[in-house]
């Protein structure tokens, strides 16, 4: 079985752990096996990206790069930058197009605002960072907001609460695709206290 492509979307003022947590999880699944189940890469509109607190990142691919592999999984992180990204039609168009063919679309924290903006949360349930729940309610009036849930699995759309919850969501996805034993092995490799 070929590796699933995991595209992690980046934008200015993205929250660092929102994208680095899932990046780490998907990168180290079955860490001692030379055959990797995921091909993880970052995608952005420009380079470099100025993440929260001044971290400079060089994305693997740009949005219009024809050599960018088609994603099987899309990870949309959050952070203060989501408020500008919500009005970036180029970024939103990329998300819309790629989500149509992706197996799973995932959001961490206020990345849910971007999913809501393109209609992906309509009729579904969602959560986000506790400080942005009212914002999400306003952007996603047709979505059931579940403030007490760390991970909300709607099938092809999975969202998590804030920041570190993205690690739990990524491990949840690993468990769904490769079994709970592999997910627990991944958490143990990371020395992460994962509670299902």
Helix/strand/pairing category: alpha/beta
The percentage helix is 25-40%
Order of helices and strands: EHEEEEEHHEHEHEEEHH
Shape descriptor reads globular
Question: Widest sheet: strand order?
Answer: 5-2-1-6-7-11-10
What is the alpha-carbon Rg in Å?
15 Å
What is the CATH superfamily classification? Class I glutamine amidotransferase (GATase) domain
Terminal Cα span: 27 Å
Total tally of structural domains: 1
Q: Give the overall average pLDDT.
A: 96
Which topology does CATH recognise? Rossmann fold
CATH architecture: 3-Layer(aba) Sandwich
Q: What share of the residues does DSSP label as strand, in percent? A: 15-25%
Short description:
With 196 residues, this protein is of the alpha/beta class.
Topology at a glance:
Elements: E1 4-9, H1 16-28, E2 38-44, E3 49-50, E4 56-57, E5 61-62, E6 73-76, H2 82-85, H3 89-101, E7 104-108, H4 111-117, E8 125-126, H5 133-139, E9 144-145, E10 151-153, E11 157-160, H6 165-178, H7 180-189
Parallel strand pairs: 1-2, 1-6, 2-5, 6-7, 7-11, 8-9
Antiparallel strand pairs: 3-4, 10-11
Helix pairs in contact: 1-6, 6-7
């Amino acid at each position: 079985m070929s590796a699933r492509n995991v595209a992690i979307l980046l934008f200015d003022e993205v929250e660092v752990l929102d994208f680095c947590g899932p990046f780490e999880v998907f990168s180290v699944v079955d860490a001692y096996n030379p055959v990797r189940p995921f091909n993880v890469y970052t995608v952005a509109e420009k380079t470099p990206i100025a993440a929260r607190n001044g971290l400079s990142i060089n994305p693997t691919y740009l949005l219009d790069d024809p050599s960018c592999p088609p994603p099987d999984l899309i990870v949309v992180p959050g952070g203060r930058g989501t408020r500008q990204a919500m009005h970036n039609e180029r970024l939103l168009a990329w998300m819309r197009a790629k989500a149509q063919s992706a197996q799973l679309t995932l959001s961490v924290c206020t990345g849910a605002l971007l999913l809501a903006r393109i209609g992906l949360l309509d009729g579904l349930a969602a959560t986000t960072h506790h400080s942005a729940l009212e914002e999400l309610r306003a952007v996603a009036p047709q979505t059931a907001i579940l403030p007490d849930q760390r991970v909300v699995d709607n099938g092809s759309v999975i969202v998590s609460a804030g920041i570190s919850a993205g690690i739990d969501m990524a491990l949840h996805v690993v468990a769904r695709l490769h079994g709970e034993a592999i997910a627990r092995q991944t958490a143990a490799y990371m020395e992460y206290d994962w509670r299902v």
